[in-house]
Every structure is written in C-alpha cells, then in structure tokens.
TrEMBL record:
The lineage of its organism: Bacteria, Pseudomonadati, Deferribacterota, Deferribacteres, Deferribacterales. Transmembrane segments: none annotated. Its EC number is 2.1.1.220. Catalyzes the S-adenosyl-L-methionine-dependent formation of N(1)-methyladenine at position 58 (m1A58) in tRNA. It is an enzyme of class 2 (transferase). Residues 62-236 form the tRNA (adenine(58)-N(1))-methyltransferase catalytic subunit TRM61 C-terminal domain. The keyword Methyltransferase applies. S-adenosyl-L-methionine binds at E129, D173. Belongs to the class I-like SAM-binding methyltransferase superfamily. TRM61 family. Keywords: Methyltransferase, S-adenosyl-L-methionine, Transferase, tRNA processing. InterPro entries: SAM-dependent_MTases_sf, TRM61_C, tRNA_MeTrfase_Gcd14. GO terms for cellular component: tRNA (m1A) methyltransferase complex. This is tRNA (adenine(58)-N(1))-methyltransferase TrmI.
C-alpha cells in the first residue's frame, strides 16, 4: 500500500467547499489555502483517511490519491480517457497480466497507468506515440503515480505506419484507427482483441466498416458508457442536476482466421445479428 510520506503524493479536501488538491509532500513546505496554511508534516502525520487542520482551524480530509483522484486532478495537456471508459476498455478487452499490450497514442499517459495496473507488473505494455513532447510528459506523469515500470516502453512513431512484432491486445485512442486494421494481420494474434476509443459516431462507423471489410475481425461491438450520479441526501433523492455527458464510443473486435468460403455452408439467419446478446 502506498503511504503518505515526504516525496509521495497526498490528496486533500477542505470541509467548507469540498475543494480537492493534489499535493507532493516536501520537507519544510506549507500548503497555503484561503483558510490558512498546513505544514506538509501535519498532512503526513494525519495519514491516509485522517484529518489535518489549518492554523485557523479549518479541517482538510487527507487521502492517498486513488487512480481517479490522480488522473482527474492533474493539469493535463492531452484529453485523457476517463476512468469510467478505461475500466470498460480493460474489461471488454480482457486485459490482464502476462499479455503483450500495444497502446497508441500515449497522450497524457492516463490509459497507460490503467493498463499497467491491469497487467499487475507482468506482461509488456508498448506505447506508440508520434509526439515526443507528449511521450516525455506522459512518462513523467506515469512515473509520478505508478513509479518505475520495467514492463513499459514508449516508442516515438506512428502506429499508422505499422506494428513491430505481435501483440495479444491493442488499445487505440487516436483520430483514425482504421489505418491500423491492415497492420493487425501480423500485429495482433488470432483470438486477440482490439479496443478503440472514438469521440464521434462517424469515426466509429468508419472503423467498424474497415473491421468488417478486413475479414479478420468478428465479435465487433460498439457501445458507450454513461455514468449517472445520484444525490442521496435525506429526502432529496434524485439524479444530480449535472451529469457526465458523452465522452466517446468504444469499439471492441476480436481477430479471427478468415472463414473459408464453402459451397455447402448453411445460410445465416436473416435476423441473427439482431438477436439479443448474452449479458456481460
Ligand atoms: C487523446 S490523446 C491519448 C490520451 C491517452 N489515451 C490518455 O488517456 O492519456 C491522443 C494521442 O494520440 C497521438 N497520436 C495521434 N496520431 C497518432 C499516430 N498515428 N501514431 C501514434 N500516436 C498518435 C497524439 O499525439 C496524442 O498524444
């Protein structure tokens, strides 16, 4: 378990406005707020789940930041995949230890941390990123929360130009993932999964058309994840007035050996594609 100490992160929330702050603990440093100051030393003494007070007596709840606390509260240069979607990518992509996972692009590195967590120190995560400045920032961002990741490498290159080697899983968050479909013939194992994150439905349609036309993908699913927070406070029990609206569409597909054309193949039932899938 990560501990709050000098050099570590801490996440503090004030009791007046519920404002959240992500801090790096430093010896001899004070956290200055509109309600007064708290020495970092006092935050460390309070510990995970504890409480620290400004010299004016305002309380701050103290936590070690979760993954969501970290990625949602850091200053960002690239649009990240939010935790509700990264969780769905990991589950629908069946991503876990021992796998070779290719991610592109790395952006801020938020999805990379989620993938490293899923791999649990095993397997290998390779990130292809065209922008060196993003790659450098992402490496720093990942290191600050996850620490050293010997099973992670970043390569400055375009995934549209090809994939070196063979992967078990591919996760894409870039504008035109359909350019990658042709590289999956050799870049993704048979039975391997690809999951793509796309903000617009036109991108999703183009990708699905390419996946189908390739003849090497089946089990194609397009979906989105909606998070609808509720307020539960005494008799006031209702959905929150604000809500997370659309983030992106997720498209998942599984690589297959193309089905040989057979003269005596049974005819596909007209509505078989409309059948209700088993719940997962
Ligand atoms: C939205 S960001 C990814 C954010 C990331 N998933 C996260 O959660 O932090 C998209 C990234 O894809 C990169 N990119 C765009 N086209 C690319 C390509 N052809 N090959 C590799 N990276 C690419 C961009 O430079 C950018 O860093």
């Amino acid at each position: 378990m990560a501990k709050i100490e000098f050099g570590s992160l801490a996440f503090v929330i004030d009791e007046v406005r519920g404002k959240r702050h992500l801090l790096r603990m430093k010896e001899g440093v004070r956290f200055s707020t509109q309600f007064g100051y708290i020495d970092h030393e006092e935050i460390i003494k309070a510990g995970d789940g504890g409480v620290a007070y400004t010299q004016k007596g305002v309380a701050y709840r103290v936590f070690y930041p979760t993954y969501s606390d970290y990625v949602m509260n850091i200053k960002r240069r690239a649009q990240i995949i939010y935790p509700k979607d990264s969780a769905a990518i990991i589950m629908s992509g069946d991503i876990h230890g021992d796998q070779r996972v290719l991610e592109s692009g790395i952006g801020q590195g938020a999805m990379s941390i989620a993938l490293l967590h899923a791999l649990g120190g095993k397997g290998q995560l390779t990130s292809y990123e065209i922008r060196e400045d993003f790659a450098m920032d992402a490496a720093k961002f990942i290191g600050e929360y996850y620490g050293d990741a010997p099973n992670h490498s970043i390569e400055i290159r375009s995934v549209y130009d090809g994939i070196d080697g063979e992967f078990d899983r591919i996760v894409l968050d870039l504008p035109e993932p359909w350019h990658v479909v042709k590289h999956c013939g050799t870049g993704l194992v048979n039975g391997g999964l690809i999951v793509c994150y796309l903000p617009t439905i036109l991108q999703a349609v183009t990708l699905v058309e390419h996946l189908k036309a390739s003849g090497i993908f089946e089990e194609i699913e397009t979906f989105e994840i909606t998070k609808r927070p509720w307020k539960i406070d005494g008799r006031s029990v209702r959905p929150e007035m604000w809500t997370y609206n659309h983030s992106a569409f997720l498209i998942k597909a599984r690589k297959v050996v193309p089905m040989p054309v057979r003269e005596n193949a049974p005819e596909k039932e007209a509505d078989s594609e409309e059948a209700m899938p088993e719940e997962d």
